[in-house]
Design a protein that fits this description.
The complex is a heterodimer. Chain A is α/β, with parallel strands linked by helices. Chain A is built from 15 helices and 17 strands. Chain A is globular and about 70 Å long. In chain B, helix 2 packs across helix 7. Classes of the chains: A alpha/beta, B alpha+beta.
Amino acid sequence: MTKQYDTIIIGAGHNGLVCAAYLAKKGQKVLLLEAADTLGGLASTREFHPGFKASVAHTINQFSSKIVGDLNLAAYGFKSGKPMQSVGLSEDGQHVSIANGKVTGVGQSDIDAFARYTKMMQRYAKAMAGFSLQTIPPIGNNSFSEVLTFAKMGLKIRGLGREDMRELLRIISLPARDLMDENFDNPILKAMLSWDGLIGSKMAPRSPNNTVLMMLFRMIGEHRGAHALPVGGMDGLINALSNALTSSGAEIRTSAPVGQVLVNRSKNGLSAVGVILQNGEEFKAQRIVSAVDPKQTFLDLVGVDNLEIEFTNRINRLRSDGYVAKLHLALDGLPDFNGINIPNERMIIAPEMDAIEFAFDDAKYGEASSEPVMEVMLPSLRDQSLAPEGKHVLSAHIMYVPYNRKGGWTKKAKDQLAKNAIKTLSQYAPGIEKQIAHAELLTPADIAESHLVTGGHWHHGEFALDQMMMMRPTYEAAQYKTPIPGLYLASAGCHPGGGIMGGPGHNAAHEILK
Amino acid sequence: MSKIKDPFAGERLKETPFHPRQSALNLRNAWSSWNGYLFADCYYEAEYEYFCIRNQCGTYDITPMQKYEISGADAEAMLNRMVTRDISKLRKNRVTYVCWCTDEGRMIDDGTIFMLTCGSPSLAWLRKSSFGYKDVTIKDLSDTVAALSFQGPTSCEVLKKMGLSKIDTLKPFGIKHFKFKGGKLMVSRTGFTGDLGYELWIDPKLALDLWDALYAAGEDFGIQPYGETATNMARLEAGFIMPEMEFNEALKTIHFQHDQTPLELDLGWLVDFKKPHFNGRNALLREKEKGTEYMLTKLDIQGNKPAEESFLYSDKACTKQIGYVTSAMWSPVVKANIALAMIKTKHLDGDIWAEINYVKELRQLSKMAKCTVMKKPFWAPARAKATPPGPY
């Protein structure tokens, strides 16, 4: 006899964990299946060199405090950590820093403009914050809840007042470049502010689409846009989540890759009734929740034979090629960054917006940028357990690195990219190249393979206007239910999207418990 | 002088392999186009050709029909998801009539499966449908198979005389293969006239040989070519639907729900809800439970004025409009004024009146005619289904 669960959740990324924790807390019998041997998905901490550990996601800036409260994560050891400064590096050591909502290292007019700009953006972020933790209804059924949700959204925006609302509507799809040029003079400040609206997406400062929305989305967390590393590193969050759910009686299985969602086919139609692991083991449940990205969920685990034709093709055309690579360096000692005492903040290497734009130009034609721009951290300065004593881990997001490189990701191409990145780093931290004991470079193609996420895309699907809200991942699957009864989605591929936020896991659990 | 030989080369209609014979017989030069081919509306006179179909036999060039060969280990699974009928039951050398829908259950097209034939180009939809299946190959055979529909009560006798042995044992929707002039001739007992008839499928190189052999054998059996107009008359008597008359192909429909579902088109028998999954199943199931808004209905109408493009009302005073006629004609063989019409389902049991507009020597006239709902096809002779069909 196979054991019967209320819910099986595929994928123990943070969204899978959040969803499982909510369901288990309500008394459901939950089984959480994870392909890797560690929990946390892109936020999981893995050893990349003996004694050195890192995670793909290396900060948190928007994890929902509602979820922290609902799941009582503090009781399970979660502390969100102090907000970090963001530092825009300058080769000559004249850095630009943002801390506690104030900018330093720029002229007075930029200081004043930044104060105005930040206040405005925070008002907008506040107006939009509520919608990330709720299901966006489909358009066109004119149900009471649909009308109510959209009316509330409208009211929130309207509540900003006439001038703010007009300005929000004006800037909402503006390229970062225009927004920055309108407000600031300092090139480093402009580049580092656009960074949060671009990273993880196939967009550069001159791309119109949802850069501004992305910036606002990152400002809804407890530190209002500042990044932080939880106490105990990323594992601090993941362990708290897994403790919360195991103490509610949920079962977790790691190294249990799912091969197939079991779909029952009868004269009553289709229904998802279980999963089959790649090793043939079978588990049954009343419902299956996939916290795996939508493309893998539908095309690989469910199979097109169980889907409708237009739906299948919409899933297939989801834009989900990642453009961010990850560099992990095992360092023999603390690198010496020009003009910085202790490099324990979040550093951005992008001297001007054009540097970001040109890096993107390379990538959009299938090449990794020869002069990459990056976001750099030394997480071992905040969490000693990540490296042996006296040694350090450098963790860097590199833009733009295409998932599909022209000519493929050969060893030579990877070595060249790592070399370019280290060369760039050494311009800001001279001598760093001599401290490197080991370098691990994960292109989006590597991330796709190592973390089982389509395209190696952070957000499981481009976070863009055409793939947002009731269109994320696509209509008929945007309310966490899918066309197959018993199958739900709970990944970053759903509203409100990616980032270590927990929204999709929260919302999916809410739909299931309705 | 332009150096380009023919600036309109791409616009010119292609000729089917039967064209040399057909053009010689097309006395009226009445051509139109179908899927890029030159194709006869009529040859001499539509009614004359119609009577050939009903009383003798006739050929109708269906080469322009779109033909696809779908092969590979996953071909059946792919098609079975695409069409509403369960084709896993289809045996070798049998043909089945199917239709396929969008996710919303709106009808895209109908067709038959032996290869797969349909009225309109469907490669894009087939490719969309095959996405995700590992082993499926789709080949467009439209230009590489010549096809002739051969219909009418004497058709079986003519094929016998042509030397197709045991053709009279071929059952409706069955297929037989024959050797012909060093090539292969495939014959299916299918058609679009509701009468005894066959469709002949052959390599285009042998098309004229087939034509000549058929016309030689058919000389004493009244063989004639017939065109689109006569086809349209015959199919209406048989109660068959025609694209752009009874239904608007869903993928070509712009306005929401100006297309139709198979249930509305009275093709519920093609929709097998016992099949666990097929495209549009959920939407069609919802429609079935709710009941269709419209239903394609066969009407027998008072008088002899064809009710072409008529509006239908629930009363003679035209106070409540309940539907519209899609095709109408005076049927010579049934001797009745017949029509297909889309009628609001909830009004099917009440009175139905057609407002018929007609022209008499340039005078625009109008009259009201009472309609009776007919359950069965207007024309369905026993020989159409009998095996052997019997001599004529």
